[in-house]
Amino acid sequence: MRVLSYNIHKGIGGRDRRYSLERIIEVIEQANPDFICLQEVDRHVRRTRYHDQPNLLSRYFNAQGSLYQMNVHLKTGGYGNLLLSRWPILEKHQVSLRLNWRKPRGAQMAIVETPEGPLHLVNWHLGLAEGERHWQVDHLLKHSLFCAQNHLPTLIVGDFNDWRNKLAKARFLPMDFHCATAPASRFRSFPAWLAMGALDKAFYRGPLNIKHAQIWKTPASRIASDHLPLVIDFHLKDAVRAVEEIVSTEATQASD
């Protein structure tokens, strides 16, 4: 299975400042993910021609499950997070991560019925201040809606804005989460045209096997947004174990 996490910057190119949702679609389509986790997705905003980006993207990719969370409200419309899934979403929740007067932020939580079993998938966009980010991680990981899914394999992706890479040891490691995007030097995603910061990250917990993780660097991704996408290939371990057992049994029967 493949998940793509991508801050699309409303579909506005990082260098040419040109709006083109088609370029974002091209980047996503090249990666061919099963789960699409986006940040900074516009709906009905003047700068993006009043497009309903969540609806356009959901329809284009024929998503069987979709969830949109508008965090920042403007005079007309606003922007936020979008989660699309190739498979049905059994349960969905959205949690505010706003701290005091700072810009509204949020997290999306979805239980997806994958061919390998249920997956707890989280998509979020954290704040710009370090103290704010630490509070946001604590707030979600200790939230009752999140804790109710502790028995499931969990994957958290998004724009962490964690320039100094402090969250892994300080917040995630004590909660038994592993980092899928380490070392940070291999996962620099911002700015897209000359990536220096590893802002787009992934953490996981439970029976989940990360096969490969990479920053998706293509000619299209370098101009479509100010971030590069993060792409992760993974399996649920129970499903992998079941396949191995089937292969082993067939091999034994063939030798008898």
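the 2nd protein, sequnce then structure:
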Amino acid sequence: MNRDFRGDVWSYRGLYIFLGLGIIFLKILPIPQTAGAWPYPDILLCLTMSWIIRRPEYLPTLLIAFMFLLTDLFLMRPPGLMAFGVLAGTEFLRNRIYILRELSLIGEWIVVSLVIILIFALTHVIAFLTVISTTNFGLEMIGALTSIAAYPLVVWVSNAFFKVHKPAMGEVDERGHRR
């Protein structure tokens, strides 16, 4: 436990920003998608959900809001709409962190799946009620389903390559606070 916790947190925040900008860059590349193809999963959403459950101190609320507002602007979505939905979903998960840490991956996957579906449905309903042009609701739900399907892979990559894992039983930070 000789690691500097504060430096560790800031390095993971930097890694999140780097990964987020990379994902945004890949999304805005002009890659043709054939008609009838399924929408790509929202990897940034999966990454955010995974890290919130494992290490919420790595992702403060303002960082999540900034990344998803940036995503909204670059992808030409209504500014702040998806950011609002993701913030609502991540804060819901953050407030239930101690319950979610006790679940297996399957239980966690079910909870995250429900949150992802609610985020996509909430943003679509708000866009519809405010008369913002939206995409087909069915396509948005397929996008949610592909994100749900990609979640276990994102969890595995986060754990295997970036070492973002659930805290061990009794693990504390340098101040003695439970992680």
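The radius of gyration is 17 Å. The chain has a mean pLDDT of 89.
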